[in-house]
Amino acid sequence: MQTDDSLELTILMPCLNEAETLATCVRKARSFLARAGVDGEVLIADNGSSDGSQAIAEREGARVVAVAERGYGAALIGGIAAARGRYVIMGDADDSYDFSRLDGILGKLREGHELVMGNRFRGGIAKGAMPFLHKYLGNPVLSFLGRLFYRIPVGDFHCGLRGFDKAAIARLGLRTPGMEFASEMIVKSGLHGLRIAEVPVTLSPDGRSRPPHLRTWRDGWRHLKFLLLYSPRWLYLLPGSILFAAGGVAMALIAAHRVALDIHTMAYAGAGMILGFQMLLLAAFTKFLGMRAGWLPVDAGQERWAARFTLEHALIAGGLLFLAGLGMALHALQLWAGVDYGALDPRATMRWVVPSVTAMAMGGELALAGFFFEALRLIPAKPL
């Protein structure tokens, strides 16, 4: 870590061919440092610009660090590693954010918050500054899902203007190279208990004459995928529990002739139970893998559960489920024998066959899951 104790703040801008707006952004950032009396620097994380952006930045008094790996996240990761300030405030170099007005973010950092997010919806979005789909669909929906999944009080998950304590963020091991880096920073900060605050910021129209690097649907999907992958509870556990429970209740009611549904619905109920059961296993696998590999924080309750879930337990429980299914299959065979192996009434026999197949399938899955879980234990633990 290259933190310089004499510097309080690094103003960091990722850069890829920003010659049209970079000088303005650097001047505004330097004017803030001078006006506020802050010991700091302006750092440009250049991602391979070919339009002379590097020379412009240095001429305006900024420090430039070259980042070879392409991508918004990669540029910021390289820039954060090279930052010399205790605090870092990052923002795009397209003149959409006003780097001369960083008092609110720096103030919250000085109060002890480790991540301070800008909120463009509270601060103001100028006409033409944000595409319609981003303003009314993408940002609101993804921000809502982020708050729902991770209980993080942030209203604008994708605001590019944000500040943080460098040491605290460095401990999170941020790694995504693309636009989803914006979500990764917030999600991991929330998962690891960092103190998060939010301040209003304004968004102005992009000052460049070329299209932005952001691609609406591609980058929106990358953000959504990240939010799902880091939340086994919402991706697997909750929908799997609902599917498994609904399938089980439906199967029991149909088997007992308590509802006006028949064996065809029972078959779908069995399929739902099997799929739900698979999702529950995937929830456990993903959470455990995330903790072992270090991209999810260690959960003491999950650790205790994992310690008790041995291969032997899985084999015993899976074997019992399989035997239960086999018992129902033998009963169905008895019914067939009762008619001298002639024509059967499927409405009677399938009420045993469908639960039998379901139980046997889940028993096999559970036994195999025990072996897979043992394989996961071989991964060395790397808690953050």
What's the layout of helices and strands?
Elements: E1 9-15, H1 22-36, E2 40-46, H2 53-59, E3 63-66, H3 72-82, E4 87-90, H4 103-110, E5 115-119, H5 120-123, H6 132-150, E6 162-165, H7 166-170, H8 181-191, E7 196-200, H9 216-229, H10 232-255, H11 263-293, H12 300-308, H13 311-337, H14 346-377
Parallel strand pairs: 1-2, 1-4, 2-3, 5-7
Antiparallel strand pairs: 4-6, 5-6
Helix pairs in contact: 6-9, 10-11, 11-14, 13-14
Search tags:
384 residues; 14 helices; 2 domains; 7-stranded mixed beta sheet; alpha/beta; Spore Coat Polysaccharide Biosynthesis Protein SpsA, Chain A
Task: Give a structural overview.
- The protein is an alpha/beta fold.
- It has two domains: 9-229, Spore Coat Polysaccharide Biosynthesis Protein SpsA, Chain A (Alpha-Beta Complex), CATH 3.90.550.10; 232-377, no CATH class.
- The chain is 57% helix and 9% strand.
- The protein has 14 helices and seven strands.
- The protein has a seven-stranded mixed β-sheet with strand order 3-2-1-4-6-5-7, with helices on both faces.
- It is elongated, with a radius of gyration of 28 Å.
- The model has no long low-confidence stretch (mean pLDDT 92).
